[in-house]
Amino acid sequence: MKHLNITVKGKVQGVSFRAATKAVADQLGVKGSIKNEPNGDVFIEAEGDKFALEMFLDWCNEGPQGAEVNLVESNEGELKNYRNFEVVKK
Questions:
Q1: pLDDT grade, residue 16 (50/70/90)?
Q2: Is 81 a catalytic residue?
Q3: According to a count of CB atoms within 10 Å of the terminal CB, is the N or C end of the chain lower?
Q4: In angstroms, rounded to a whole number, what is the distance separating the alpha carbons of residues 51 and 55?
């Protein structure tokens, strides 16, 4: 199991990015959370096995229809043992 802190930059708010990301995370068995940042980025904490996280990151680089992803930054963090994947509202 690995933990990734992921920041997605671009046109990623107002395009159902969080809801679509949750659906993909649930399909892949990725646990964690996603929230909008005040600067327009989306911040994701994701936990899963190496294979699931690679597929999840690939998806984050695309995003849902209507999104325009310019940059995805990710780095490993400390495992928090999330039980599910949750969309954090403001």
A1: very high
A2: no
A3: C
A4: 6
Tell whether 58 is covered by a domain: yes
- Specify whether 83 is catalytic: no
Other residues' Cβ atoms within 10 Å of the Cβ of residue 4:
19
Record the pTM: 0.97
Point out the catalytic residue in the list 5, 36, 75, 84: 36
Angstrom distance (rounded) from CA 12 to CA 82: 24
Choosing from 18, 39, 75, 83, which is the catalytic residue?
A: 18
Owning domain of residue 49: 2-79
pLDDT digits (tens, 9 = 90+) for 21-62: 999 999 999 999 999 999 999 999 999 999 999 999 999 999
